[in-house]
Write a structure and sequence with these properties.
This protein is of the alpha+beta class. It has four helices and four strands; from the N terminus they run H-E-E-H-H-E-E-H. Helix 1 runs parallel beside helix 3. The chain is globular.
Length: 159
């Protein structure tokens, strides 16, 4: 719970700062433009996926999708038997990131505040936020922490 709450708090604090300091300003770059702070309001999902949907459809789809993601992750965390510590951390990050973006969608008419961008030269990521990082790290940790003995093993058929 502490990790989940910290994740949401960090995400919302950085988004508040981005809205106050970056909105209506030019991008600010660091380390030879490897790291860039650039304000954006994202009506879509991660990296603006689905941003071209009509606003009302996207807002409903991504808000409900976020609620489902959070509910599934929370239920799995609470009801699954034998979760490893790594899986618990992963689920807390997934829930924290999902809640962080869901708060934005509810507060800002279906939009999420994004402000981070990294890259080298013309090769750049899309603009993202702390919640997106938490979600991606959480998914990666969950996949890496999935027990290897849980995979399906095929045995030869008896003839």
């Amino acid at each position: 719970m502490a990790l989940l709450i910290s994740c949401v708090g960090c995400d919302q604090t950085t988004k508040t700062l981005a809205r106050a300091q970056l909105q209506d300003h030019a991008a600010v770059s660091f380390l030879g433009d490897t790291f860039r702070l650039q304000y954006a309001e994202n009506p879509g999902a991660f990296l603006s996926l689905g941003a071209s949907l009509p606003h009302q459809w996207g807002a409903v789809l991504f808000t409900l999708g976020g609620i489902v993601l959070i509910a599934v992750a929370l239920l799995y965390a609470l009801l699954a038997a034998k979760l490893t510590r790594l899986q618990i951390v992963a689920l807390a990050l997934i829930c924290g990131g999902g809640i962080g973006n869901l708060v934005d969608r509810v507060r800002y008419e279906g939009h999420v505040t994004d402000f981070l961008n990294v890259g080298l030269g013309s090769i750049r990521t899309g603009i993202f936020n702390v919640a997106d990082v938490a979600l991606m790290v959480g998914v990666a940790l969950f996949v890496l922490g999935y027990p290897r003995d849980a995979r399906i093993v095929h045995t030869p058929r008896d003839g």
